[in-house]
Amino acid sequence: MGRALQAWRIQRRVIFALMIRELTTRFGRENIGFLWVMAEPLLFATLVGFLYRYMIGTEEHGVSVVAFIASGYIPLTVMRNSFGRCLNIFVVNGSLLYHRQVRVLDFIIVRFMIEMIGGMMAYLVIGTILVFFGLFPVPAHIGFLLAGWCLYMLFVFSVCLVIAPASESSETLEKLLPVTVYVAIPLSGTFNMASWLGPKARDIVLYSPLVNGMEMMRYGLFGDTVRPYYDVSVPLGASAVVAIVGLAMCRRVRRTLVVE
Amino acid sequence: MISCSNLWKSYRVGHGQKQVLKGIDFAIAPGDRVGLLGRNGAGKSTLIKLIGGVELPTTGRIRRGMTCSWPLGFHGGFQGSLTGYDNARFIARIYDRDYGTMRQFIEDFTELGRQLRMPVKTYSSGMRARLAFALSLAIEFDCYLIDEVIMVGDKNFQEKCHFELFEKRKDRAILLASHSLSSIREFCNRAVVLESGHMTQFNDLEEGLAVYENL
Q1: Fewer C-beta neighbours within 10 Å, C or N terminus of chain A?
Q2: What confidence tens digit (pLDDT) does each residue in B1-35 have?
Q3: Whether the predicted pLDDT of A250 surpasses 90
C-alpha cells in the first residue's frame, strides 16, 4: 500500500512536469501562451456552428443549431487531435525515457489530458458567451453533461492507448488514421441525435460508445427538448476492452523500443 | 549494488535479428569504478542503456539496489528545443529536487552564463557534457553511467569532474565507457571488455587495457 502510494506520487509529479514541458514546447511563453490549447476547438466549434446556422436555420428539432453543432464539434476535435498527437509519440519523446521514472504511458496521458482540458475550456468559453446571446441553453442537467463527457473521453483515451503503440510498428496507420476518423463521424453523434434516425440506423449508431456519451451530453445540455438513447454499459465495456488491448500493446512495444 | 544476470539484447534489422549482447553477468558494487572498453559497435552504449533502464533487455534481469543516473552521453536526457534552465526545471520536478539550489549549482558548475537561456540544441557537445554532469551531480546518484561524454570537455571541465567525482564523492560508483585509455586510467580501478556480445572482466586495470589494445 505504501509502495503504491509512493509510485502514485512519483507518477503524479512526472505527469505534471511533462504537462508543463509539453505546453512550453508547443505554445511557448509568448502572448496568450498555453491558452492556445483551446483556440482550435473554440474556433472550429463556433465557425462550423454559425456555418450551419446560415445553411439550415436557427433551430432544428427544437434546439439551437449553433449550440447543437458546437456541443458536438468540441468533443470531436478533442478526439481527432488526441488521436493525431498519439502517432509516433514514443519515438518523438524518446529522450525523456532516459529518466527511469518516466513511463511511456505518461506520454499518452499527458497529450490526451492537454487536448481534453483544452476542449473543456473551449466548451466553457463558448457556452458562457453564447448564453448571453440566447444561442446556447443553460445546461438542464449538468451531471448528465459531465457523465456523458467522461464516458466519451474515456473511450477516446482507450483508443489512444492502442493508436500510440500501433503507430510504432505500422506506418500505414499514420496515413489511414485521418480518413478513418473522418469517415467515422456519423458514428460520433456530432451532427444528429439518435432519435432523429429511423429505428434501423439508430440500432446501428447505438453500438458506438461515442454516440452513447454524446446522447447523454445532449440530454444534459438541452434537457427534455431532446429524447436521448443511451446505455452506459456500451462505452464502459468498449473502453475497458480497448484499454486492456492498448495497455498490453504499450507494454510489448516498450520492450523492443529503440531509444537514440 | 547493481547486478545484471544473463542479459541478452537483440535488435531487429530488416527481417533478421542482430544479437548485440549474449548473456552478460556483471555487477557494480558501491564505490566501484569500472572502465567499459570495446570496439565501436561492441555494445557499450547498449549495455549502459540497459543498466540505465532506457531500453529493456530481451531476456535477463537487472536489479538496482542503489540509485543510478541516466546515461550521460551525447544523446538523451535533454529536450533540445528547451533552454538549459527549462531542462533543469523539468529534471528538478521529476526527481523532486529544489529548483533554486539546483539552478545555483548548475550555474556554478557549467559556467555557461547566459547560454543557459538558449535552447540546448544550440549547444556544442562540450557544453552539453557540462550541463549533463551538472544536472546529475545536483541530483546525487550512487552510481554514474557515463557514455564517452567526459572526453569532450576541456581541461577546466575535466578538473571539475575529477574534483566532484573523486574528492567530494569518493564513495560513488561509476561505469565509464570510453576509448580514451588516459581517462580510463584516471577515473577507473578495474576494467571490463566487451567483444562480440561477451564480457571479460579484469580486476587488474592494466591487464584489461592491454587486452583492449590488442582487439
Answers
A1: N
A2: 999 999 999 998 888 999 999 999 999 999 999 99
A3: yes
Residue B177 has pLDDT above 80, yes or no: yes
- Closest-CA distance, A16 to chain B, in angstroms, reads 8
Residues A107 and A93: beta-carbon distance below 8 Å: yes
Q: How many residues does chain B have?
A: 215
Positive/negative CA dihedral, A215, A216, A222, A225 = positive
ipTM score over 0.90, yes or no? yes
Instruction: Tell me the backbone φ, ψ of residue A102, rounded to 5 degrees.
Output: -85, 125
B92 Cα to chain A: minimum distance (Å): 9
Residue type, B91: I
Contact B94 A14 (CB under 8 A): yes
A29 touches chain B (CB under 8 A): no
Contact B90 A17 (CB under 8 A): yes
Q: What is the 3-state secondary structure (H, E, C) of A151-178?
A: HHHHHHHHHHHHHHHHHHHCCHHHHHHH
Nearest to B82 among A25, A101, A258 (CB): A25
- Tell me which residue of A165, A159, A137, A105 sits closest to A224, measured CA to CA: A137
**Choosing among B7, B94, B142, which should be mutated to test the A contact, i.e. which has the most A CBs within 10 A?**
B94
CA–CA dist B152, B198 (Å, integer)? 28
Distance between CA atoms of residues B180 and B201, nearest Å: 18
| Residue of B166, B167, B210, B157 whose CA lies nearest to B188 | B166
- A118: which 3 cell numbers? 483544452
CA distance A139 to A67: 11
Q: How many CA atoms lie within 13 A of A141 on its CB side?
A: 16
Contacts of B54 in chain A (CB under 8 A): 97-98, 100, 259
- Element spanning B146, H or E: strand B143-147
Q: How far apart are CA B184 and CA B12, in angstroms?
A: 32
Using CA coordinates, name the residue in chain A closest to B53. Answer: A100
| CA closest to B89 among chain A residues | A17
pLDDT exceeds cutoff 90 at B90: yes
Q: Are β-strands B173-177 and B143-147 bridged in parallel, bridged antiparallel, or unpaired?
A: parallel
Q: What is the average pLDDT across A63-86?
A: 94
Angle at B18 between CA B12 and CA B20, to 5 degrees: 120
Name the residue of chain A whose CA is nearest to B82's CA.
A25
Strands A63-64 and B59-64: unpaired
**Contact yes or no for A206/A231 (Cβ under 8 A):** yes
Residue type, A116: M
